[in-house]
Amino acid sequence: MGCGVCGAGPAAPVTVRGHQGMIVIMRSLKRQGVFCRSCALSVFREMQAETLITGWWGLLSVVITPVVLLTNLGALSGIKRIPAPVTPGWRPPLDPGKPVFQRPEGVAVLIPLGLLGMVVTLVTALLLGLFPGLSDTRPNLTTGSCARNDGSWTEPDLKTVPCDSDEAQYRVMFPGDHGCEDGDYLASPYDSADGIGRCLRPIR
Ligand SMILES: [Zn+2]
């Protein structure tokens, strides 16, 4: 069985997929055939490089493209197991060219991916900054519960503890009309789910 492109052998059945996103519509590409190692590598690299550039441009395509790229990596490991051609074909095999990441397409795709990574990092940092509750290190102080402070009062590390435990240092009180009483500490509004800063009354 010779290569379907050049006739050289040995050759093996190979399937390489591609994807093109076009905002709303998209197109799936597939090249299937019996290829020698050189021709298969050439088909793989061409398809992979093209998908890296044209794949991402659509809502579904963003999800489909990495799947296609990964599936092709599976095909590549099969391609690499085809021995180099020994019986010549009727024409020279396709030139495999450079590996994908040594091509302009492979380098170009790192730019949008890098930008995407930066945007995700920025948005995450912004959300955590705007809504400290999301970082989930805040206690949820509720009236009547007990708390302790393992930090200082300039940099508190409050957590809720059972009132009957030795760890309890403060009872959490709802602020009165005039705020907290003398001797109380005022907890940050962020330390309560309802956003109302509670008074921390030392337990004696
Ligand atoms: Zn071939």
Describe this structure in words.
There is one protein chain. Strands 4-3-5-7-6 form a 5-stranded antiparallel β-sheet, with no helix packed on it. A two-stranded antiparallel ribbon has the order 1-2. Helix 1 packs antiparallel against helix 2. The N and C termini lie far apart (90 Å). It has helices at residues 37-54, 61-79, 104-108, 110-130, and strands at 11-22, 25-36, 146-149, 158-161, 170-173, 185-186, 199-202. It has 2 domains: 11-108, no CATH class; 146-202, no CATH class. It has 4 helices and 7 strands. Helix content is 31%, strand content 21%. It has 204 residues and is an alpha+beta fold. A hairpin with an 8-residue loop joins strand 3 and strand 4 (158-161). Residues 3, 5-6, 8, 35-36, 38-39, 93 line the site of zinc ion. The chain crosses the membrane at residues 56-76, 107-131. Keywords: Membrane, Transmembrane, Transmembrane helix.
